[in-house]
Specification:
The complex is a heterodimer of chains A (378) and B (400). Chain A folds into two domains: 186 residues, Rossmann fold (3-Layer(aba) Sandwich), CATH 3.40.50.970; 129 residues, Rossmann fold. Chain A contains 15 helices and 14 strands. In chain A, the strands form three sheets. Chain A has a seven-stranded mixed beta sheet with strand order 3-2-4-5-7-6-12, with helices on both faces. In chain A, strands 9-11-10-13-14 form a five-stranded mixed beta sheet, sandwiched between helices. Chain A has a two-stranded antiparallel ribbon with strand order 1-8. In chain A, helix 13 links the parallel strand 13 and strand 14. In chain A, helix 3 packs parallel to helix 9. The longest helix of chain A is centred in the N-terminal third of the chain and has 20 residues. Chain A is globular and about 60 Å long. The two termini of chain A are 30 Å apart. Chain B has 400 residues and is an alpha/beta fold. In chain B, strands 3-10-11-7-6-5 form a six-stranded mixed beta sheet, sandwiched between helices. In chain B, strands 1-2-4 form a three-stranded mixed beta sheet. The chains are: A alpha/beta (378), B alpha/beta (400).
């Protein structure tokens, strides 16, 4: 049945491809926010996170930051810069290099009424503490029949970094979003960082907050509204960064930028991509994805993590299981990090993470657009 | 009945003699309201002075502690039987033999103090305020269970009792975290983080020893040394079997964990030590478990039946306590018999309900995953059926 329908869809797709190929350029609706950005305040992702931490420490006495080098050293990535001076060593707690121990202490403090923010110097080191995150934080509310909650935020840099090889360069989005009981957030720009981190700290459940290591120094515009101390984003909602009608690109974190870059390039060739910034990986906003698929009939997922059991795998499966499947003109394609541990050598490292070219190639392939296809992209 | 206040001093060896001579001077049916007992000396690590080897208790306290030990023993016996009847499933770790540790500690814990333990927690859960039915129905996975049957044997919670943890050693950092919050909020509470001799070799225990001392957290690390981590004896698992010294820079106390009153005094000392701002303490309680590690372990392949028998006959925490308080004239044997009957009746009644009562409805399967649920629906085994997420019985979590 599905095959027959799919066959029919392919015919439809080909018809639409022809439409594009015939050179009917669609008017590209310029993103309103990019216009606004000319006037908005510019900020680095690091400062956005820092300001969110600052405001939440100020707002709630129960909030404290615990982790390696968070206080005196101002954070290994300077995310907590200046906060020790402001809030003192009671609220900014430097720990020894004991991830399992301090993650457990943070969870215990949450069980006893505090609102800890537990920083991992990088998410790679959270592997030492994954038992406390999943077995102690994520499951306690359920196991206690709703008696005991664990309001805690685990945060730190995640994803592929540069030149640091396999043990310090990987994405934990799929690992943690696998687990019921956790909420998993993956911000892309400054507004995401401010709105989502503040929401995470105020949330009564354990939240895994994945900051992309290569994004800290990147600058984005921040609106006046997003600079407000009351600014929080709703957890579980994706955001459409760019509207388009030919293909949906769903991505999280840094890969949202990769998608936007690809979309810009493709727009010049008459292909309008709708770029979804997932923001929240658990809950996953399938409603926004499905609505977009209803419009574009094509879906590509983009992530820096590995393909197997990844975020894209989950989205693909959910599309398959939903009515949206019947709206597809082409199979869902996952653009992911290459299925290898991160190599150190620069030439190899360069081709591991998704590039705009990879996305462009896949978009053209599923839309049936002929063009130059780099052999390395696929 | 308790008209006169007679202070009786007795040591273990001479208890009977001195008590009888004292009793002769009492009018018939007239019992002492208070008595002082001598315990085995403590071993100390980095402490100039330790807990008092003399422990004074009132007859009411004696009755209370006796009732608690009997209740725990009865609950565990009932649990063992329910397991054999296949009504309790999965894991079931019995506390029989170790009752003195929990009862002695609880007897001097203040309302602001808290405890967290591993997977042998039926006794602790009862002591921290859950009824025998709450414990037994949790074990059988029924409605009246303290966690509505969702936690089972290893995951029970109560106010100031943070579980119940099935991961060996994981509760120790959590306990230090509870103490961290005590210090942070300045509520004056001390947290008791309990673990076994097996868990004492977990890396995370040493990680939090360090942080607890570094930050002087009000936590007492209690190693319940029952001699065996599953089927491996302490000699075969631990390069240093002196667990009270394992904290190195953290002072420690060794206490006879089969003696309720010795544990009581060690705990009293510990609370005073921690609340005076000196930071953590390690307390090793030498105890013994009569059953195997869990119900699947007969407990006889790595130790002899004679060894178990000998402990039962010479060191049993209930028998020795019972003899002590009767001999000191604190309670009558008849009264204790009456308590035994009451305890048995309560546990029997709880067993009856725990066996016959229904489990919670299937509609509760997806409840309480989140305190603030944002998932619209919870997926079932197929994408064609979804569950609704609710928060059970609308109650507010005790810590949020």
């Amino acid at each position: 049945m599905a095959v027959v329908i799919f066959g029919f869809k392919i015919i439809r797709k080909l018809a639409e491809d022809t439409f594009i190929l015939n050179g009917h350029h669609i008017w590209h609706r310029k993103s309103f926010s990019s216009f606004k950005s000319l006037w908005a305040k510019q900020m680095t992702v690091r400062d956005a996170l820092n300001s969110a931490l600052d405001e939440e420490l100020k707002r709630d006495e129960r909030v404290f930051l615990i982790g390696e080098e968070v206080a005196l050293y101002n954070g290994a990535y300077k995310v907590s810069k200046g906060l020790l001076d402001k809030y003192g060593s009671k609220r900014l707690v430097d720990t020894p290099i004991s991830e399992q121990g301090f993650a457990g202490i943070a969870v215990g403090a949450a069980l006893n009424g505090l609102r800890p923010i537990c920083e991992f110097m990088t998410w790679n080191f959270s592997m030492q503490a994954i038992d406390q995150i999943i077995n102690s934080a994520a499951k306690t509310f359920y196991m206690s029949g709703g008696m005991l909650g664990a309001p805690i935020v685990f945060r730190g840099p995640n994803g592929a970094s540069a030149g640091v090889a396999a043990q310090h360069s990987q994405c934990y989005a799929a690992w943690y979003s696998h687990c019921p009981g956790l909420k998993v957030l993956s911000p892309y720009n400054c507004e995401d960082c401010r709105g989502l981190l503040k929401a995470a700290i105020r949330d009564p459940d354990p939240v895994v907050f994945l900051e992309h290591e290569l994004q800290y120094s990147v600058t984005y515009p921040v609106s006046d509204q997003a600079l407000s101390e009351d600014f929080v984003l709703e957890i579980g909602k994706a955001y459409i960064e760019r509207h388009g009608k030919h293909v949906t690109l769903a991505a999280h974190a840094k890969e949202v930028q990769t998608c936007l870059d690809a979309a810009k390039e493709l727009a010049g060739q008459g292909i309008e991509c709708e770029v979804i910034n997932l923001r929240s990986l658990r809950p996953l906003d399938m409603e926004t994805i499905c609505k977009s698929v209803a419009k574009t009939n094509n879906l590509i997922t983009v992530e820096g993590g590995w393909p197997q059991c990844g975020i894209g795998s989950e989205i693909s499966a959910r599309i398959m299981e939903s009515e949206s499947f019947f709206l597809l003109d082409s199979p869902v394609i996952r653009v992911t990090g290459v299925d290898v541990p991160m190599p150190y050598a620069k030439n190899l490292e360069t081709i591991v993470q998704p590039k705009p070219l990879n996305i462009i190639t896949v978009v053209k392939k599923i839309l049936g657009v002929r063009g130059k296809v780099s052999s390395i992209s696929l | 009945m308790f008209s006169r206040c007679n202070k009786l001093v007795s040591s273990q060896s001479t208890a009977q003699k001195s008590v009888w001579s004292c009793l002769r001077s009492l009018i018939k049916n007239d019992y002492a309201t208070e008595a002082t007992f001598e315990s085995k000396p403590f071993k100390l690590h980095r402490l100039d002075s330790g807990p008092s080897t003399k422990s004074t208790i009132t007859s009411d306290e004696a009755i209370e502690m006796y009732k608690q030990t009997q209740m725990i023993r009865r609950i565990e016996t009932a649990a063992g039987n329910l397991y054999k009847e296949k009504i309790i499933r999965g894991f079931c770790h019995l506390y029989s033999g170790q009752e003195a540790v929990a009862v002695g500690m609880k007897s001097v814990m203040r309302p602001q103090d808290s405890a967290i333990s591993a997977y042998r927690v039926h006794g602790w859960t009862y002591l921290m305020g859950v009824s025998a039915l709450g414990v037994l129905a949790e074990l059988t996975g029924r409605k009246s269970g303290c966690c509505r049957g969702k936690g089972g044997s290893m995951h029970m919670y109560a106010t100031n009792f943070y579980g119940g943890n099935g991961i060996v050693g994981a509760q120790v950092p959590l306990g230090a975290g509870v103490a961290f919050a005590n210090k942070y909020t300045e509520n004056g509470g001390v947290c008791f983080a309990l673990y076994g001799d097996g868990a004492s070799n977990q890396g995370q225990v040493f990680e939090v020893y360090n942080m607890a001392k570094l930050w002087n957290l009000p936590v007492i690390f209690v190693c319940e040394n029952n001699g065996y981590g599953m089927g491996t004896s302490t000699e075969r698992s631990s390069a240093s079997p002196n667990f009270y010294t394992r904290g190195d820079y953290i002072p420690g106390i060794w206490v006879d964990g089969m003696d309720i009153l010795a544990v009581r005094e060690a705990t009293r000392f510990g609370i005073e030590y921690c609340t005076s701002g000196k930071g953590p303490l390690v307390m090793e309680a030498a105890t013994y478990r009569y059953s195997g590690h869990s119900m699947s372990d007969p407990g006889t392949s790595y130790r002899t039946r004679e060894e178990i028998q000998e402990v039962r006959q010479t060191r049993d925490p209930i028998t020795s306590f019972k003899e002590k308080i009767i001999n000191a004239g604190l309670v009558s044997a008849d009264l204790l018999k009456k308590i035994d009957v009451e305890v048995k009746a309560e546990v029997d009644a709880a067993v009856k309900i725990a066996k016959s009562e229904a489990e919670i409805g299937l509609d509760e399967l997806a409840n309480d995953i989140y305190s603030n649920d944002l998932e619209k629906e919870i997926r079932s085994t197929t994408p064609f059926l979804f569950y609704k997420h609710n928060n059970s019985s609308g109650k507010t979590p005790i810590n949020l």
